[in-house]
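Hi all, posting the design record for the shared folder.

TITLE: backbone redesign
STEP: 1 of 1
STRUCTURE INPUT:
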């Protein structure tokens, strides 16, 4: 693996093997797509690791390439509960040695408590069952494991003050969530900074941002919007993202001041204040 690329995720390794097997079979993406009954563009997405085939498509790929169920069996190990745009990011979180997060309106997913995550799910899903709610919360909060154990990454968390003030799930839930973040910062699990309202405009005002760094591989940047996300590994875009993070961090409160503000906001929520 070249050192000037980020680590390959399992789904990207799957796609690379598919490309190699297709090439060895002397099939173009278009010809393989004809046999799988899908577009060549979709085959391209599979090979790039952006998408995974459905089980039936994987079986047709095996039939077309004569691979005796190889891709169908491997697919079972790659199934993910995450949306397509986030699945690769979730895999990269497990490999990162440093994560720098900026949150504009909501607590970053990897830091969310069960009740906070549950409140978010109820807010944007008009119809849900208790089982679906429980599954969503487990999927979201299982990401917290990346912050546990001796191999956990160095984590920087930069929060816009709006994250502290938006009452997600009610006073008790918000107080618990903010106390959890402050406790983690005081325990050395993350470095915490807050961008207060009085800063006004800052370099990350338009978007959340996550930066990830790896051993022996180039860093990446990830931004997310409604039902979509963009993982960037282009050096120029990653550098621009790192610069924006550094600029925003320079406007933030110190860790001590940030901790005091987070603790104060938690108490305000606990007492039902605005």
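Okay, here is what came back for every position:
SEQUENCE:
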């Amino acid at each position: 693996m070249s050192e000037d690329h980020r680590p390959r995720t399992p789904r990207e390794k799957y796609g690379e093997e598919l490309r190699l097997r297709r090439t060895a079979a002397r099939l173009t993406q278009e010809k393989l797509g004809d046999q799988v009954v899908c577009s060549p563009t979709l085959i391209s997405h599979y090979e790039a690791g952006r998408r995974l085939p459905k089980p039936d498509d994987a079986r047709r790929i095996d039939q077309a390439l004569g691979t005796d169920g190889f891709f169908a069996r491997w697919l079972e190990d790659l199934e993910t509960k995450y949306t397509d745009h986030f699945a690769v990011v979730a895999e990269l979180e497990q490999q990162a040695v440093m994560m720098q997060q900026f949150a504009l309106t909501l607590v970053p997913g990897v830091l969310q408590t069960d009740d906070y995550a549950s409140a978010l799910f109820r807010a944007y899903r008009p119809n849900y069952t208790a089982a679906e709610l429980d599954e969503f919360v487990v999927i979201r909060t299982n990401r917290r494991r990346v912050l546990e154990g001796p191999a956990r990454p160095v984590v920087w968390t930069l929060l816009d003050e709006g994250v502290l003030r938006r009452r997600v799930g009610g006073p008790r839930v918000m107080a618990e969530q903010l106390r959890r973040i402050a406790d983690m910062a005081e325990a050395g699990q993350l470095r915490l900074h807050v961008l207060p309202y009085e800063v006004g405009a800052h370099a990350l005002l338009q978007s959340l941002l996550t930066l990830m760094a790896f051993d022996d591989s180039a860093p990446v940047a990830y931004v997310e919007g409604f039902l979509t996300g963009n993982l960037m590994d282009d050096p120029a875009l990653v550098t621009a993202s790192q610069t924006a993070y550094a600029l925003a961090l320079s406007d933030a409160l110190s860790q001590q001041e940030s901790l005091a503000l987070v603790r104060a906001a938690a108490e305000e929520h606990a007492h039902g204040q605005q």
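COMMENT: The chain has a mean pLDDT of 89.
Let me know if anyone wants the other runs.
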